[in-house]
Amino acid sequence: MAPITAGAPPATAHAIHAEARTTKPAAAPPKKSKAPAAGKRHASKAAKTPARSKASYTIRAGDNLTTIAKAHKVSLAALLKANKFSDPNRVLVGDRIVVPVPAGGKQTAKPVARKTPAKPHTYGGLSPKQVLKKGRSATKAALAATDVPSRSQTKALIEQTARRYGVNRQLALGIGWQESGWNQRAVSSVNAVGVMQVMPQSGEWASGMVGHNLDLLEARDNVTAGVAILRYLTANAKDLDQAIGSYYQGLGAMRKHGPYEDTKAYIRSVRAHMERM
């Protein structure tokens, strides 16, 4: 999911209790009585802020916390407080979150409004998915006919995307260099694609994590897929070496078998690239 977009922090609402006004005191003190003295005004208790009830909402593709808060007419601060996110940038499609609702209010539970997605780019009349399904030759031909960024532009794109998703800049750059030398036209023998050498099925997984379809043949989406995968790996691996190795070997295999010999060489190489970034 993309980082939440938050403007200025909301102002804190403080309850202001006005002092009660009283009439002028009578010449003689009033008699003791359980009933209130005639003509005397009493301070009314300040109304309590209505307590909020809670409802649940399931994160859908394209959501972010800002739009969810706006759609349900709650502040972003209230939404964050209700859920106590360890990292609000790591809310994923399918997660269930709590939405605070003012007492007496109704939870509409309507989906967050989204813009109609732009028509996907095609390659020789084929969709990105169709190109990748045809295999390595079709992928290489599509990329050869597509404008791609220079290496310096690709480096800047990786840095920008890493910042956006909260991923270590050196790690993203090091993986990208190890995988392709920051070359979007790179295609492996098993049809891993582009700058971050993302396999088609991994691209579909990354699309689910970020909430929209990613075109691996397009440099920005390719980098986004790789960085989203790195974000997941760094959050779930026991340490940096396991995260790096998992990009190459897979997290399940790393946990079960540890790094293979070629994975150890991969980790050392990525570490060396990181030192130079």
From TrEMBL:
Q: Where is the composition biased (Basic residues)?
A: 31-45
Q: Where is the composition biased (Low complexity)?
A: 1-15
Q: Which domain of life is it from?
A: Bacteria
Give the matching SUPFAM superfamilies.
LysM domain (SSF54106), Lysozyme-like (SSF53955)
Segments of this protein annotated with the region Disordered: 1-55, 107-128
Q: Which InterPro entries match?
A: LysM, LysM_dom_sf, Lysozyme-like_dom_sf, Transglycosylase_SLT_dom_1
Limits of the LysM domain:
55-99
Leader sequence residues: none
Q: What SMART domains does the record point to?
A: LysM
**Matching PANTHER family:** MEMBRANE-BOUND LYTIC MUREIN TRANSGLYCOSYLASE C, SOLUBLE LYTIC MUREIN TRANSGLYCOSYLASE-RELATED
Q: Return the protein name.
A: Transglycosylase SLT domain-containing protein
Species whose genome carries this gene: Flexivirga aerilata
